[in-house]
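Q: How would the structure tokens look for this protein?
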Amino acid sequence: MPTPSRRSHARILTLLALVTVLLAGAFTPTAHAASPVYSGPGWKALTKDSIYSLSPDPYTVVFANTTARTRLAKYFKTPAIQVTRTVGVPITVTSTIDTTPAGTCPTYHRIVVHYTHQPLGQRGMSSAWPCYRISDGSAWGGHLYMDSEYWEQPAWFSTNRTVNEAWRRDISTHELGHMLGLDHPNTDVDRDGKVEAQECVRGAGGLKPIMCSPNRGLKVPTGPTGTRVPVAYNAMTAGSFTKAFDLPGLRQMLANYRLRQN
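A: Here is the predicted structure in token form.
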């Protein structure tokens, strides 16, 4: 039986100070330790929600209603394909409507996506409610609540349409990462004794893990008109898990599943 985890707030955005393995050779596995590992450079397992591993069994993305499907389906296709091909865990974005009520875990390995106005009662906040499998601590699936404000207000993130869309894709992938068992990997980079918002390791080109909190670890400066507009150097990789951090984390989570069986 699955158990609902306590909710995992993914990120605070604008106006707030916050995928059976494919054919052999489809992805290149990384070397793993002989024992489970729950954190590494730029990634961290969602152990606080009792998730320690990622099952190799297929996952499906389904939708709470037709509005959620119409609005959000495309945002989960890129990361679903990426995880399927490079991690070896099949994720399929379906057209299925699933009305499993909030607070109840859905069918095994279903991720139910909701399109909800301020799901936490606060502006700009989406949330993930992952469930875990009691027998092995693996990611079960659960409910993913996207704040509809990102689409209700066309320029929620930026007046630049490309930048605005990049942020929608990033937040969707970030939330999916939580459902697969990834936590925020913020760490004390500057060694001042505090783990702070946006404080995460950097990869090539300065790109931080997509799971970095908040806003992928990007600054949200105050614009000339007082409007807070995120800087989007993520536009070219929008909606993708990073090769340096998030994907190795997911591969280790998959390795953990097998290691924990032993």
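Helices lie at 66-86, 149-152, 161-179, 246-261.

The chain has a mean pLDDT of 85.

Upvote if useful.
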